[in-house]
Design brief:
seven-stranded mixed β-sheet; 9 helices; alpha/beta; two-stranded antiparallel ribbon; 22% strand; rod-shaped
Amino acid sequence: MADWDIRKLHILRTLREKGTVTATAEALHMTPSAVSQQLTNLSKQLGVELLQAHGRRVRLTDAARLVLRHAEAVFEQLERADAELAAHLRGEAGEVRVGAFSTAVPALVVPAVTALRATRPGIAVRVREAEAQEAYELLAAGEVDLALSLAAQAPSAVDPRFTRVPLLADPLDVALPCDHPLARAERPRLADLAAEPWIFGASGPWSDITRGACEAAGFRPHQAHAAAGWPAILAMVGAGMGVALVPRMAAVPRDGVAMRELRADRPVRHVVAAVRRGAEEGTAVGRVLDALRTSAASRPGGSQAAPADG
C-alpha cells in the first residue's frame, strides 16, 4: 500500500492552486528547495511521477491529479474532524451520559434534553435510570459522566473525586384521600396529621425523609403500609388507606387523591448533581449542567437551590 503523507499532499495541493514552486513556498512559508524535496519524496512514496517539467515551470501529471482527487475527500474529512473537535472543546458537541433517580428523569432530565436539542444540537445525552448509590458507582467507574441524586445520598462534599452541584430544593406535599377532613384545608400543618396511618418505604432514603420530617414536626409517624413506588403509594392513599408525603417532582394527578401544600415550614428534599472533578469546566458536561439548572429553576416552587454540602 502506498504511503499517503498528509503534509506532502497538502504541498502538492497548494502547488496545483498556486502554479509555481516559488509561489507554493511563499504560501506555505517554506523555501523552494524544501518544497521540491518534499514533493520528490512523495513521488517516491507513492511510486508515481507527480510533476513534469514545462519550460521553466512544472505541471502536475495525470497521476498527481488522480492522487489529489482522492486526497480531497481526506482533506474534507479532516476539516470536519477539526470542526467537531473545536466544537467539543467549546462544549458544543459530544456525548454526555447521565445517571439519574427515577423521579428526576421526567422532572429535570427530559426538559433539559429537550432544551439542548434546540440550543446545542451537537450534544447527545444518554440517560440511564439509577438510584443514587448505583449512580455514583457508575460515575466513579467512568460509565456515566453526571449523576443526579438526593443530597443525603450524594458523596461527601469533601470527596476529592467529585464536584457536587446544587440543583433544587424539592418541596414535600401531603397526599390525602379526597374525603379526608383536611383534603380541602388551606396549607395544613404536618403536625395535624400526627394520628394518621402513614404510607412510606420500609427502609431506605424515603423512609428516612418521611420519618425525619414527621419527627421535626413533633411526632413519630405510624407506618400502616410500606411501598417504594409512587404509583403504589398514591393508589393506597386514593383508596383511603393512609396519607403520605410526596415530593412535588413525583406528584401526578390521581383520582381519589388530594395534594395539599404544607405551611411555610414544609419539609423539602435537596436534589444535587455530581460530576468527576474538573469535568464541569467548559465542556459538554458543563452545558448539560446548565440545562439541568435551568430545568430545576423553572419548576413551580423549586427555584431554591440545594445547599452544596447537602
